[in-house]
Amino acid sequence: MIIGVDIGTSLTKAVVFDEVGVSLHQACTPSEVHHLPGGLVEQDLDQVIGTVATVVREVAARLDAPVTALALTGQGDGVWLRDEDGNAVRPAISWLDGRANALLAKWQADGVSREVFRRTGSGMFPGCAAAILSYLDTHEPEVLDRAVVAGYCVDAVVQRLTGAITVDVSDASLPFLDPKTRRYDEGAIAAVGLSHRRGLLAEPAAPKAVFSLNRHGAELLGLPEGLPVTAGPFDLPASAIGAGVREPGDGILTAGTTLACQVLTDSAEFDGEGEPAGMFLSTPTPGEYLHAMPAMVGTASIDWICRLLGIEVTGIGPLLAQSPPGAAGVRALPFLSASGERAPFVDASARAQFAGLSLEHGRADVVRALCESIAYAARHCFEAAGLSGRLYACGGGVRSAEWTQIFADVLGRPIVIPSDPGVGARGAVLVAAEALNQPYDRDLWASSSRTVSFVPENAEFYQRGYADYQASLTAARGLWRL
Can you tell me the distance from the alpha carbon of 123 to that of 277, in angstroms, rounded to the nearest whole number? Predict the structure, then answer.
């Protein structure tokens, strides 16, 4: 009876699984995301804590056996500043935030981004901790003076529930952690001018670390004081673990708010010569890493097109079916985020475009062009990450059979879809089971899935379409300006 909790950007979910990995009970509730003028995106820690309490209490009330542990995962990046008691000293700054766009562009021009990439294998972007903390150090230094820790969503919740100031190695991986040593690289911290703020970074927890629910956390969740709590990895690695990614070369596509493309590897080698983008995420297993390319072009783009066209998200599938592969000649670049793109390249000025439109086209063609362009972005990411094995997929985007087929055809490979959508919570539970020495059958937990095969003639067509996408992207990058 381990309750897995996935604290997403816009939704918090709690799930309990049976002994073979099938969800028994689940609950979810939305989190508030505040989009402010100037590309600012913030969240309220107390509101997020409230969502955790809501879903945990709801699931626990349905159980006919005692809860044995709480396993947490959630969104990564951004900055969640707290005092020694775990209270926020300012609203949390989301990974979606764009206030540091100009600073990031300066770091790219000055070579700072490449220096950090050379040291840690992490490509910085406006919503990462380095950019946000440096921005605050200039514009809100008094806030950093009041803070005791600058962390992330999951460890902010852990501090409130257990009193522990900690961070998982996966969260710490971007951008200051050397993934091979699992320690902070002081040169990377110095490169972004934050050595004097080094004390705000919590030391990464040891593998299989377990914390305990304190009195305040117990009262908040309605669970026993002293209950074991595990913290991480954050949602990207947790989803890979929950989906069944095991062998080097295997990958996972998460079609969520982030279009996260990850490939498991046993080598975190980076020479700093490539484009400074993506990251190597440390996993719970020392010596294993996820080479991640988390693009900014996920389902938020679909939400935008639905609002623009006045349609429901559930109407995307039928529209995709009405337009042929290639969207009747309409082409798109999907970079709609106000903070640009972060993988497989970093450019805060990246912006979307549609081309090839005429009076003969309808909204089905526009929707299909956008969905195809996001699939092309996924292929670009996986090529950079080194996908060579089996591919899994999860996230809200793969609930659409039509869009999932586009992903399979553009990538030219079959995609394994776990039947249970709560793979992030599932991964957190499996990590907790390992930490608590609770045995489980890995094969049974990974067996509940279906496979979407690609259509060979469509894959051949999209091979040419991908070349056109790459040419359009190269041309557009020469024109983007902040």
Answer: 4
Class of domain 2-237: alpha beta
The closest alpha carbon to 429, from 416, 420, 438, 421, belongs to 438
pLDDT reported for residue 275? 83
Residue spans per domain, the chain: 2-237
C-alpha 150/C-alpha 78 separation (Å) is 10
| Alpha carbon distance 33, 96 (integer Å) | 10
What b-and-e string marks burial along 249-282, b requiring 16 or more CB atoms within 10 Å of the CB? ebbbbbbbbbbbbbbbbeebebeeeeebbbbbbb
Count CB-CB contacts under 10 A for residue 426.
Answer: 30
pLDDT digits (tens, 9 = 90+) for 419-453: 877 899 999 999 999 999 998 888 787 777 899 99
Q: Give the pLDDT band (50/70/90) at residue 257.
A: confident
For residue 426, give every residue at least 6 positions away whose Cβ sits within 8 Å of its Cβ, in sequence order, or none.
Answer: 4, 15, 17, 21, 23, 238, 241, 242, 243, 418, 420, 445
Q: Partners of 41 in the beta sheet?
A: 35
Contact 322, 79 (CB under 8 A): no
* 151-162 residue pLDDT tens: 999 999 999 999
Q: Which amino acid, 145?
A: D
| pLDDT attached to residue 225 | 98
**Share above pLDDT 90 across residues of the chain, in percent, rounded to a whole number:** 90
Phi-psi region of 326 (alpha: psi -120 to 50; beta: other; left: phi over 0): left
Beta-strand runs (E) in 300-352 = 331-333
Alpha-carbon span 302 to 424, nearest angstrom: 21
Contact 368, 320 (CB under 8 A): yes
SS3 helix, strand, coil % of the chain, rounded to 5? 40, 20, 40
Q: SS3 for 410-450, per residue? A: HHCCCEEEECCCCHHHHHHHHHHHHHCCCCCCHHHHHHCEE
pLDDT recorded at residue 272: 62
Using CA atoms, how far apart are residues 425 and 281, in angstroms rounded to an integer?
A: 18
Pairwise CA distance, residues 170 & 167, whole Å:
8
Average pLDDT over residues 101-126: 95
3-state secondary structure at position 380: helix
